[in-house]
Task: inverse folding
């Protein structure tokens, strides 16, 4: 449903170094050959540190920006040659989106956008009432949006992105600025759209809870390159971070058991690090019959993200 091949994008930035100096052109490589495809109905999360190239990629996919080279197909249509027909089939919320009319009410804003997509007023009304309920704005439908809070405006943008029943959703940090309820409502809506209407979604996020809760697949970009592509579990494996298993025992393990146990109040503790806790834990428990308590700490997606992008967290174990 979404296919992109070898996307390259370099921005030319004019820089003035020092007062009265001539400005110079500097090239910033935002995408250095990105290739992936997303099948119909899949929700994919796009992760990457600031400046990784996520917004650049999403802007290219939604036809707002042309790549220097490469190819983009959306719903079997070439986005670079037929941007208009692609625009009818995609719903977009960009992080920098300010495209709402502040003096108009929520309903009027949706009417304007629905009309731009060529929908009849009765279709817009029917569709927007459902959408406004889904994003919890139903009571505010007749309030001018200058009186909305930031989160309410964001929710209206999401409703607006869905007004023409798009087959593909492209969302740049859609839940930044939303409260916990707002986030969970949007997650439920996205999953429901994927399940019932086979909507294909690509969403960029910095929210690791979101990355674990919503997408079935994650793409990790770093420095304009696709670094990892897989399920959240695949990313955890690729990061090679170990789980820590702590087992408290009533008796010290035999000296030839190979376990190094430290004394604690009321017994001993063995600490074990492994990449494969599911496999290892039963064996450990068999070999440590006096175990009375087991604690397991698995690596988090945030830790995997940092490991895969070359950063690290202080180990707080
Ligand atoms: N309009 C622009 N002109 C020049 N350089 C740009 C422009 N937009 C982005 N860049 C540069 O391209 C690179 C990628 O930026 P991009 O906005 O795609 O990153 P991002 O992954 O969305 O980051 P963030 O997480 O901060 O939103 C950065 O180095 C950025 O400075
Ligand atoms: Mg961005």
Result:
């Amino acid at each position: 449903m979404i296919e992109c091949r070898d996307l390259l994008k370099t921005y030319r930035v004019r820089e003035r170094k020092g007062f009265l100096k001539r400005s110079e052109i500097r090239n910033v490589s935002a995408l250095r050959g990105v290739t992936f495809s997303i099948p119909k109905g899949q929700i994919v999360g796009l992760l990457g540190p600031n400046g990784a190239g996520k917004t650049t990629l999403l802007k290219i996919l939604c036809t707002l920006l042309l790549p220097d080279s490469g190819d983009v197909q959306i719903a079997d249509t070439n986005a670079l040659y037929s941007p208009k027909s692609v625009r009818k089939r995609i719903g977009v919320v960009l992080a920098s989106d300010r495209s709402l009319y502040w003096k108009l009410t929520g309903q009027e804003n949706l009417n304007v956008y629905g009309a731009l997509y060529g929908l009849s007023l009765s279709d817009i009304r029917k569709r927007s009432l459902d959408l406004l309920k889904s994003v919890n704005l139903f009571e505010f439908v007749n309030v001018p949006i200058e009186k909305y809070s930031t989160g309410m405006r964001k929710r209206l943008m999401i409703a607006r992105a869905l007004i023409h029943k798009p087959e593909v959703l492209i969302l740049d940090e859609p839940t930044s600025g939303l409260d916990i309820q707002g986030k969970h409502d949007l997650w439920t809506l996205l999953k429901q759209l994927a399940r019932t209407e086979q909507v294909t979604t690509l969403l960029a996020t910095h929210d690791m809870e979101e990355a674990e809760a919503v997408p079935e697949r994650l793409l990790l970009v770093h420095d304009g390159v696709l670094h990892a592509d897989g399920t959240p579990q695949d990313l955890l494996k690729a990061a090679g971070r170990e789980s820590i298993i702590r087992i408290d025992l009533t008796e010290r393990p035999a000296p030839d058991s190979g376990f190094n146990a430290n004394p604690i109040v009321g017994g001993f503790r063995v600490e074990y690090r492994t990449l494969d806790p599911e496999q290892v834990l039963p064996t450990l428990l068999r070999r440590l019959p006096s175990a009375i308590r087991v604690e397991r700490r698995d690596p988090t997606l945030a830790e995997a993200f940092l490991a895969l992008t070359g950063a690290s967290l202080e180990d707080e174990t």
Notes: The CA atoms of residues 208 and 302 lie 6 Å apart. Residues 11, 13, 28, 30, 48, 50-56 surround adenosine-5'-triphosphate (ligand 1) (CB under 6 Å).
